[in-house]
Write a structure and sequence with these properties.
The complex is a heterodimer. Chain A is an all-beta fold. Chain A is built from no helices and twelve strands. Chain A is globular. By secondary structure, chain B is mostly beta strands. Helix content of chain B is 0%, strand content 45%. Classes of the chains: A mainly beta, B mainly beta. Chains A and B meet through strand 5, strand 6 and strand 10 of A and strand 5 and strand 10 of B.
Chain lengths: 111, 114
């Protein structure tokens, strides 16, 4: 079946620190992988995506590389800001199925 | 920016009341979804639709019902609200080919049942 396992939070970092949020997946076929972000009081927004192995998705300084050999899609950012404080969800789509989400990781960045 | 709307944004209601949460999108998307988000943040798919007159139950059993009479509209109804229905409800839509594109989410409705 399809599933996403995401690093549990919460994660608290100082401004300008390096961020990694781990995500691994199990899927039938060849999934597309996504990171969504949810800012306080809002719905989810697509942060980045990768649709095939070795693709790198990037947006707003965040990056994630689709690693088929390790079935991973870890989210990274070199220098986080207070405005990055949010909940981050890893997700996948495989075939004609719906999105499968991880449990979410809450990030708090302190000045 | 995605054009998907939810109303109301916040709703506080008494037990036993009937409520309808509205969701509309102007992107012409075939697929629409309702998720329930618990306080622990986890998202649960409760309903989805692949087009007009198509409705399916999601992974999490829900006492709510949905309808899809028009492409742009996907309302969710609770016939008799209970405190256990207190949650955040997120609506989403997406194109038919979701292998390379994705879902767009509304801002959510936070429901509190007293």
């Amino acid at each position: 079946g399809n599933s996403v396992t995401q690093m549990e939070g919460p994660v608290t970092l100082s401004e300008e620190a390096f961020l990694t949020i781990n995500c691994t997946y199990t899927a039938t076929g060849y999934p597309s992988l996504f990171w969504y972000v949810q800012y306080p009081g809002e719905g989810l927004q697509l942060l980045l995506k990768a649709t095939k192995a070795d693709d790198k998705g990037s947006n707003k300084g965040f990056e994630a590389t689709y690693r088929k050999e390790t079935t991973s899609f870890h989210l990274e950012k070199g220098s986080v800001q207070v405005s990055d404080s949010a909940v981050y969800f890893c997700a996948l789509i495989a075939g004609a199925n719906n999105l499968f989400f991880g449990t979410g990781t809450r990030l708090t960045v302190i000045p | 920016e995605a054009d998907i709307y939810q109303t109301p944004r916040y709703l506080v209601i008494g037990t036993g009341k009937k409520i309808t949460l509205e969701c509309s999108q102007t992107m012409g998307h075939d697929k629409m979804y309702w998720y329930q988000q618990d306080p622990g943040m986890e998202l649960h798919l409760i309903h989805y639709s692949y087009g007009v007159n198509s409705t399916e139950k999601g992974d999490l059993s829900s006492e709510s019902t949905v309808s899809r009479i028009r492409t742009e509209h996907f309302p969710l109804t609770l016939e008799s609200a209970r405190p256990s229905h207190t949650s955040q409800y997120l609506c989403a839509s997406g194109p038919w080919d979701t292998s390379t594109d994705t879902q767009y989410f509304g801002p959510g409705t936070r429901l509190t049942v007293l």
